[in-house]
Amino acid sequence: MAAHQVAHRIAEENQRTLNPTCTGTSVVAVTFDGGVAIVADRVASYGKTARYKGVSRLYRLNSSTLIGFGGDHADFQFIQNLIYRRAHDYKAMCGDPDAELSPMAVHSYLTALLYYRRSRMNPLWNTLVVVGTQPDDEGVKKPFIGIVTLKGVAYHPKYVATGLGAMLIQQSLETEFRKHQATYGAETKLTKDEAVGLLRKAMELVYYHDCLAHSEYEIGVVTTEDAAVLPPEELVGNWAMAETNCNYE
């Protein structure tokens, strides 16, 4: 093989994805007393076009863990495959077909994976939200939220909004939490119904302001008993405000 052909092949092998293709937008998650609730809409956009509708962006791994994603849909499918294999290997290692990875273990694995890929200058174009119930040293399950960005940055908040929602509704979530604590006490947590209601309100705000958001969304709830993704819901919206925002006549 000629030298120029070798150089051309090496250049091809070193090419990287510079931009994601079909993407999902914001994911929102909040903790409540005894669990975590998470929400994401059901569309994968190609640029500004809603290319694929009815796409679930919440992945139920097991009875204690859900994963929501924003960013490239194909990259998350790749990540799903890796997580499935890790879960299978863990069951084989434990010798127990019912053994489950904890949400903290999944979050740690994804942090290492995304950091490794970005260090190789070949990132997975996703922001991942891992939610679940994590056993403490005494075996008591407590709410857990873990975030991993495409740069491998990871942290554990009590509530979070990713994507454009980080700018649109992060402050709203903090305001609601502070209002609740001021009324009921700093140690009092939201109830499940309050958390789900807060997520519905958050998705309405995202839908009004984010041109990539879609009216159909689904909510996932993790409690100490199980993890489940609820049936899809549809936003109706109130666009009367458009007359004042856009000077319509």
Automatic annotation (TrEMBL):
| Iron-sulfur is among the record's keywords | no
Output the GO biological process annotations, alphabetical, semicolon-separated: proteolysis involved in protein catabolic process
- From the UniProt annotation, give the residues forming the signal peptide: none
Q: Which UniProt keywords apply?
A: Cytoplasm, Nucleus, Proteasome
* Location within or outside the cell: Cytoplasm; Nucleus
Q: How does it assemble?
A: The 26S proteasome consists of a 20S proteasome core and two 19S regulatory subunits. The 20S proteasome core is composed of 28 subunits that are arranged in four stacked rings, resulting in a barrel-shaped structure. The two end rings are each formed by seven alpha subunits, and the two central rings are each formed by seven beta subunits. The catalytic chamber with the active sites is on the inside of the barrel.
UniProt entry tagged with the keyword Plastid: no
Q: What is its main location?
A: cytoplasm
Q: Which GO terms describe its cellular component?
A: cytoplasm; nucleus; proteasome core complex, beta-subunit complex
What function does the entry list?
Non-catalytic component of the proteasome.
Which Pfam families does this chain map to?
A: Proteasome
Query: What protein does this entry describe?
Result: Proteasome subunit beta
Q: Which family does it belong to?
A: Belongs to the peptidase T1B family.
